[in-house]
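Take just one protein record:
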Amino acid sequence: MSYSIASHTKYYHRYHVVWTTKYRYNVLQGSLRERLRTIIRQTCDELDVHIVRGVLARDHIHMFVSIPPKQSLSDVMQKIKGRSSRRLQMEFPYLRKRYWGKRFWARGISLRPLAMSPTKLSCATWNYIPEQNDTSGFRPEVVHSNRPNTLNRGSIKLKC
């Protein structure tokens, strides 16, 4: 378990967030998928949100994120979903016809906070995210450990 450090704070705020496209249409494919990944990374970098791991499926997104205490999760998700929806609809005009009303994402998010018992919940979430159909993720966090109590997923080791 690694804590994040700010100027006067040490924190461990990790969240597993899932959200879907409106009507669960399978549109997150090809160049739209690549552009969406770029937009989400840029928005998270601007907000100082660290993407520990993420998976883009064809109709939904899983993200395991670390959010600083100065940010609220609802504000972060509002900015990610709002910016990505607006930019995708500007760059891909066929989305405007399919998603009338300028809403690309479904309302709400599924959230699982991981602050209370980080090791067990983090392992469960870490192992759950790659089991989705498509494993083209954002950027995995690599944790090196020589302890016998570790889970090895290729080059990714997570203490469980």
Notes: Residues 139-160 have pLDDT under 50 and may be disordered. The radius of gyration is 16 Å. Residues 9-159 form a domain with the Alpha-Beta Plaits fold (CATH 3.30.70.1290).
